[in-house]
Write a structure and sequence with these properties.
The complex is a heterodimer of chains A (188) and B (232). Chain A has helices at residues 3-15, 19-41, 44-60, 71-96, 120-124, 129-140, 145-151, 156-174. Chain A is mainly alpha-helical and 188 residues long. Chain A has one domain (3-95, 118-174): Rna Polymerase Sigma Factor, Chain: A. Chain A is globular. Chain A starts with a helix and ends in a 14-residue tail after the last helix. The model of chain A is unreliable at 103-110 and 178-188 (pLDDT under 50). With 232 residues, chain B is mainly α. Chain B has two domains: 3-31, no CATH class; 45-225. Helix content of chain B is 73%, strand content 0%. Chain B has ten helices and no strands. In chain B, helix 3 (45-67) packs antiparallel against helix 7 (139-165) and helix 8 packs antiparallel against helix 10 (211-225). The chains are: A mainly alpha (188), B mainly alpha (232). At the A-B interface, helix 2, helix 3, helix 4, helix 6 and helix 7 of A face helix 1 and helix 2 of B.
Chain lengths: 188, 232
């Protein structure tokens, strides 16, 4: 069975109240959703909270999924909404707090993960949030341009443009330039 | 460095295992189990969009019936043939956009701001082409009456639309409010075209058309300050 249609079947069963389908969806999609949050926030604690919050929201609005439609854009649109909400709350909190000391910049280099492959979070860390999420959805979640456009409420053209700009930045960075920049921008 | 090489690096990085704490997953599964029951999925998009169009038509007709159909008889056949189909097309586009905003991950054919701009500009163009009376008698006093009447009819249209909207989940509440406000504003303009007998071009272009952006702005404001609650 095609993985997408498999997800659609699981989602339809979840809407009918099938506990096994809900469990299967959670176990199957949580790692990529968790990674989506880690790539954005770099903190596993935050990502854990966001993952839990996302599934709670998905559960509340599961009736809005339409049978036959791709599951990932629906799911990522909700995850993105949770992330943006969290980002705004965090920014409000940060604005009220007094900073005690300067925090070190993130991702000054490209550390390799334990397996020798480049660390994804560090690789994408210097991209603006809007470009990072597009690359994350396209290359890590394996979504199509059309699906990413749906998940981000934008057009395919805009997604292509963001991916193109992200590749230019990555090319510049991987070719040896622009290594020192921290994270830029906010969720769009 | 070529795109394909970047692709390979990203692919390699993505293949690195990313595990989630099994205890966290157990907690998530456990927290959903107690409230896991069958839910009724939303009706098809065309049913919801049709419902929104009917609401707009009903509000406009009821409003004009109550206030009097003074404008409709004064319009020529050409006026009617251009104004009402144009309003119908934009009401349908706004209704389908509303449905898109209430279902996460929907295909967006037009950005809410573009829809508002296109709808307003198209109506301005239609009015500019059709009407030839350039007088401005009682411009402000009559204009404020029409603007107020249009907005007062946009409110019931928005409230009735909310009955359909509340089962959805708007991931962008401001965009959803903007589209819903645009739709309600179009209902208000439709009522004015049926009711208002003042066919002075500047009156119609300014005070009638203004109902749409004002209503859209009010909708966006409501979306910003009033987070949406959904009903499963």
């Amino acid at each position: 069975m095609h993985p997408d249609s498999d997800l659609e079947t699981l989602m339809a069963r979840y809407q009918r109240g099938d506990f096994a389908a809900a469990t299967a969806l959670i176990r199957r999609l949580s790692p990529q959703l968790h990674r989506f949050f880690v790539v954005q926030f770099a903190s596993r604690g935050d990502a854990d909270d966001l993952l839990q919050e996302t599934w709670l929201r998905i559960h509340q609005v599961r009736h809005t999924y339409r049978a036959g439609e791709p599951v990932l854009p629906w799911l990522y649109a909700i995850a993105r909404h949770i992330r943006v909400d969290h980002y705004r709350k965090a920014r409000r909190t940060a604005a009220r707090e007094d900073r005690l000391e300067e925090t070190p910049e993130v991702a000054a280099a490209l550390p390799a993960s334990s397996g020798g492959a480049p660390d994804l979070e560090a690789l994408l860390a210097h991209l603006p949030d809007s470009q990072r999420e597009v690359i994350e959805m396209l290359k890590i979640a394996g979504m199509s341009l059309e699906e990413v456009a749906r998940a981000t409420s934008s057009t395919v053209g805009s997604v292509k443009q963001k991916a193109h700009r992200a590749y230019e930045r990555l090319r510049e960075r991987l070719s040896g330039g622009g290594m020192g920049a921290g994270r830029a921008g906010g969720p769009s | 460095m070529k795109d394909r090489e970047i692709d390979d690096i990203l692919k390699q990085a993505a293949q690195a295992p990313h595990d989630v704490d099994p205890a966290l997953l157990d907690r998530i599964v456990g927290s959903l189990q107690s409230s896991l029951g069958p839910v009724r999925p939303l009706p098809p998009g065309w049913v919801l969009a049709g419902g929104l169009v009917l609401i707009c038509a009903a509000v406009a007709l009821a409003g004009a019936a109550r206030a009097g159909f003074y404008g409709f008889p004064k319009l020529s056949v050409l006026d009617r043939a251009l104004i009402f189909p144009a309003l119908g097309i934009f009401i349908w586009l706004a209704a389908t956009a509303c449905v898109g905003e209430m279902v996460p991950g929907s295909r967006r054919r037009m950005a809410p701001g573009s829809l508002l701009a296109a709808g307003s500009l198209a109506l301005l163009a239609v009015f500019a082409v059709l009407f030839r009376d350039y007088r401005t008698d009682h411009f402000v006093s009559q204009g404020v009456v029409c603007l107020t009447a249009g907005l007062l009819h946009a409110i019931p249209a928005a409230l009735a639309s909310w009955l359909l909207f509340r089962r959805g989940f708007a991931v962008n509440a401001v965009a959803a409010g903007l589209v819903a406000g645009t739709l309600a504003g179009l209902a208000g303009v439709t009522m004015l075209e049926l009711h208002c007998a003042n066919l002075e071009v500047l009156h119609v272009m300014l005070w009638h058309t203004a109902v749409i952006p004002v209503s859209a702005a009010a909708g966006a404001l409501v979306g910003k300050v009033w987070p949406m609650r959904t009903r499963a």
